Structure formats: structure tokens, C-alpha cells
Structure prediction request, 471 residues.
Amino acid sequence: MSTAPQIQKEWTPSSWREKPIAQDVPYPDQAKLNQVLGKISSLPPMVTPSEIERLRHQLSLVQRGEAFLLHAGDCAESFDACTHENITNKIGLILSFSLILIWGARMPVVRVGRIAGQYAKPRSSGTEVVDGKTVLSFRGDNVNGLDPNDRVPDPERLLSAYFHSTTTLNYIRGLLTSGFASLHHPRDWSLNHVRSEVLRSEFEKIVDGLSDALDFAKTIGVESDRPYEMGGGRGTLGEVDFYTSHEGLMLPYEEALTRELPVPSALKAREKHHYNTGAHFIWIGDRTRQLTHAHIEYFRGIRNPIGCKVGPSMDNEELVRLLDVVNPDKESGRVTLITRYGAKKIDTHLAGHIAAVQKSGHPVVWICDPMHGNTHTAASGLKTRDFAAIIEEITACLRIHTECNSRMNGISLEFTGELNDEGYSVTECVGGSMQMGEEELGLRYQSFCDPRLNFEQSLDVAFMISDFFKK
Ligand code: PEP
Ligand code: MN
Prediction:
């Protein structure tokens, strides 16, 4: 194999179109698709270069071990679940989780939600059999419908995805600027949902401690003049930041949201970059990270911080070549590697990946996704994940990084604060402090994609990680 550096051809937002593409969506009506894409490309950006640059900077702090990254949300959002309650509960859970980490680890947490655009799903097969009939697989709300009779890809759904994303984002910005996210009111985020006495009292202890700390800081006059991350205005000690992300799977959509814009004036006057304005952070899935294919081509040219899933099929050398392509200047904060091997496989792969990246000199943020390598089908036929396997992968990840003189810089979770009408959490993963059994999965299984940790199970994970960093 040649080791000579490869000369990259010029990048444009559409240069990915010349490459083979994995997980492509076969639209029957190309003219309609182009019309919709034209419309999306004329609509306003959802996020701004200054927000994106700020996240890049914050991720460089994460990479240096000065902050922790929390990447979390649904496997897939749906248009129907875009409601006031669901969004509030999701943000509440992300805030509660991060507060536990901040309190235990005494480190800032960078919060990136899988939200406001996480509508596309990769599939292992293009078709599936439903009630004895072969139909196209469901690819997420921005492609086709969950209903087996609604599986023809419809370009109009991309426009709907844009508007559902902006609606979600608008509501999040509202929540953040109207005091909901203020660290002065953490009781507003979650306690109603936490049914376990132990978890409730652990969380209460943190909230009481935090209240005291904030009062003390106010009394002695400590106020931060850090700019407010989303929504403008000036931040204070009691406020938090929040960013959005999704898998950058549908390249025609991502291209339509890519704009060449000046970098914020405070950074470098007159310099312009291509920003993906549909989210602050987008990631490459485990099924679309082929080095010479379309997704890597698209991702290498955008200025946003990006993620890449790394699973058991990633070869050490391939990982370094991927980093060379997407981050040739080895910039800190640009790339986050989201490792997802499964509890049984992490020991075989992670140390080799860390060693290869260390030798290459690439600065990366390493985060652990303990969800995607730990999915199995329960006897009832429901897809589930075992809480014990999730904890096992996180524990192994923390240990292996330490052994390799590296650091687990964050966590990537599929969780939900969603409740049913009676206020009960979902039942999609087994185990946790609430000891959910397999036979209970059917009670409130609401995911139409991968199974998510519920409120209590998520807080269990938060306390476990927080305890590790406390030591
Ligand atoms: C996901 O994050 O929902 C996903 C599909 O992950 P992966 O690409 O790692 O399989
Ligand atoms: Mn998933």
C-alpha cells in the first residue's frame, strides 16, 4: 500500500455527488426533490457561525480534559413527538444529567442534544417484511412513513424536517432564555419524574449544595461575563449552554443547508468558511464512514465540529487515514470519535484505536457510546438493551483510557425524558436501579427506533460516571 500523501481534489458542498454513496435514498421523483432542495437552500440558517465556532472552542477544552461532553437524546426524533412536553422533558433530562456530572466531576459539561434534526436513520437492509409483504424499510420521518403503506421516499418530508427542526430549536432557545435552564431552578427539570427514593434524595443533595454555592458566589460578587451560548445576551453564573446535533446521513439535505459565511468578526476578519447551518454538530454513522465515499467527502469540507462513529469493524490504520482526511491540520475540537463496540468487544478494539491515534498526533475528543453495540432482541420480539451491559461498556471504556494514558472525554447516550399520560417513564431498556424486567418492556415501549434509557436509568448512569471522576 502506498504511504504517499494523497492530494485531495477541491471540495465544494456538492463534490460528494461524484463519489459512491452508502445508504442512498432512491427518490422516484428527482424533479420534485430538486425543487424542495432549492427551497431549503433559500431558507434561513438554523444556527450561526458564531455558535458553531463557540462549540469548536468548547470541544477543544473537552479534548484537553478541561470539560466533559454529554451527547444525548433520541435515536430518532419523529414529527409527531415534536411537542411542548416532549421537548421540555428532553432538555430537563439533559440538564439534570449534566448537573450531576458537574457536581461530581467539578468540570464544565458541554451539552449537545441529538435533537432538532435527528430524523434520518441508516438501515442494515433496504427492505423489510411486514405482515408477509416486502416493503421498503422505514428510513426516518424525513424520508418515509413508519406506516408500511407510506414507504415511498417523499421529498416534501425534507421540508417538513426543516420546519420541525426550526420549531424545536425555537422552543429550546425560548426555554434557555426564559430561565428554565437556569441553575437556580434545577427542581423544575426533573424531580416530578424521579420515582426512586434513593435517586431523588441523591439529586436533592446536589440541588441543595448548588443553591448554597450559587448564593455564596452571588454574595461575594462573582459573576461571569461569558457570552450566553444560544440566544444572545450576557450569561450569568446560573445559566447554561446547549447545542444541537444529528447524524449527517441525508447529504442532499445537508448540502442544501451548507452556506459559505464569514467567520465571526472577533475571530478572523474577512475569512469565510462553509458551515452546515442545520445543526452545530453533525456526525458520520458507522455505516457511512467509508474513506473514499460520499459522506467523508462532504464532512471534510465543512467547518462545524464533527463526530465519527467507531465500531469493531474499524481498522487502526483506517481510523488514522480518516482523521488525516477530515482534519488534515490536526485542529483541536474539530473531531469527536464516538466509540461503540459493545461490552463484549471493547477490550479487543479500543486500546488499539487509542494507540494508533496517539501515534498519529491527532487531537481527538473520545466519547463512549455504550448503546449501539449492546442491542438485542428480547423474547417478546422487542429490541432492547441491558442496563448492565451499558454500564459494563462505560466502565471498560473508562478503565482502558486510563490504562492507555488517555481520557474518556464524554458520553453519547440514547435517552428520553418522555412520559406517558400518567407521568410514567418509558420501558425500553432492562435493568437499572428500578430493576426493570424483560417482561415489563411492553408496558410503555414508545420508541419506534432504538430502545432508550428512561429518566431514572439515565440518572443512574450520570451518578456512576460522576462517581468515577470524583475519585
Ligand atoms: C445511532 O447513533 O443511532 C446509530 C445508528 O449509530 P451507529 O451509526 O453507531 O450504528
Ligand atoms: Mn440509535
Remarks:
- Residues 75, 122, 285-287, 309, 340, 372, 450 surround phosphoenolpyruvate (ligand 1) (CB under 6 Å).
- The CA atoms of residues 391 and 452 lie 14 Å apart.
